[in-house]
Structures are given as structure tokens and as C-alpha cells.
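WARN no homologs supplied; continuing
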Amino acid sequence: MLEGPPPRGVGSPPDMTKRILPGGLPMIAAAALILLLTHSPTAAFGQLPGGGGSDPSSFNPALLQLFGGAKAFSGRVNLRVTDQGNKETMRTPMTLVYLENKVRVEVNLGDMVQATLPPQAIAMFKQAGMDQVTSILRPDRKQAIICFPAAKIYTQEGMSPSDLDAFNSTYDVKFQEIGNESLEGHPCTKCKFTVGSSSGKTMQGTVWRATDLKNFPVRIQVPAPDSTLEMTFKEIKTARPEAAQFEAPGGFKRFDNMEKLMTERMSSILGGGAPQPRK
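OK structure emitted
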């Protein structure tokens, strides 16, 4: 049984535990909730310089400026986070889908390798049918959706002001070519980049731009204050994805917020078996 708050890791601000811990929720369920919010891959995105925040739905739209104005794309992504000593602290495959400023990220927590994530936390999510997570950002509607397909449940809440400000900012992107390399079977131009926003925030890093895919960024590396995030794309598609992928799922039970969802789900497990998903 987990005792006390989990170890702090990528995307875990000092006041996170106090902010999200639901009163009366058993400690193991509360710990699982904290782990979901602070160790999810999209929380890592939000911790990049210029990002919106550490919520599980956070995604730094400054990254989108590296895709050369593409209106639509999708692909499998290998996400890695390393610490200041270049030691890997998180690694996970995921799917990223983009359509005209709408973002969808799919991840299976069972595939995630996380240095500070206890195995029993992943086992609890799997028992609850919550190991598969889909995050959808709709800045056009100011909405964030977090869906658990196996359990047929989801939350739909308003995006935070900081996330909305990041999506609504204007950006200036500068590239400095530093070499040429082949990566994932694509000839690439390796560049240093700087993305500046109208809010005054900047993000710098290195990008490998595939010359055979209209400079699609096959790999992106971005240093943050205490870590470095690396994204490597595979199975890249530039076809327009279906708009339905960015809608709340039909036939799923909706919760007003993540605390209510986790309280019901985990209490049901601890009380003797997870509730059955809605047909």
C-alpha cells in the first residue's frame, strides 16, 4: 500500500498535492490521482518553457510552431525525458493527432517507463480500466477532455487561462542550421531553434527537419530547467484526420472533474470491484 505522497517528478509543482487531494478519499486512491496528474506525458509537455501548466491535459503550443504551418498531421511518438545528468526519467510511446489547432494525445500508461512511478499505481489504473488515456484539447471551445476508453468514462472541463493564452499567442520562429543527418529513414536538416511568443516567453532547442516531408520535425529536443524532453516521430501521416477524433466520445459517462471521476472509480475498486462500463 502506498503511504504518503508519491515522489515528485516531471511536472509536479510543490502545491500539487494540496491542490488536488480530495477530502475523504483513501490514501492509495489519492496517491494514484496525484500520479496521474503529475506523471502523465502531457504534463511533461506543459512543463516546457512557455508551456501552459502541469495539468494532465497541458500541451505547449509553442511546439506546434515547428511543424511549418501544417494544418493537420498524425503519428506515433516516442517521448523521452532525461534529467540534468542525462539519465532517463520517463519514456513512453504515444499517438499525437493534430487538426487546425486541436490536439489529441493517446497513451497507454502500461507502456510508460517512469523512474518514480510505483508499479502498484499502474496496476491500480489497469484494474480501474484507466491505463489507456486520451487527452483532447479544443482551444476553439476552451475545453479539455480526458477520456479513459476501456472504462468508457471521461471528464470535460474548461481549459486553464494559461493554456488558452498559450494557444492564442502569436509566435516567431527562428532556425539556425547546424548539420545534416539521416533519422528514422529520412534525410534531415539539424537545426537549433528559438520560438518566441507575444506573451514574452521563449522556447529553445534542437530539431531534425525531414527534407522529404516538407521539413516535418522528425525529432525535437527541448531542455527545461531540470530536464530535457525528446520527441521522435514515426508512422507520420499528413492526411487530414477525422474531426470526430476531437469530440467527446459518445456513450461514455461524463464527470464534471477529475476528482469526482477518481473518487467514484477508486472507491468502487477498494470497496470490492470496479464498476462496469456503460454499454
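DSSP finds six helices and 13 strands in the chain.
OK
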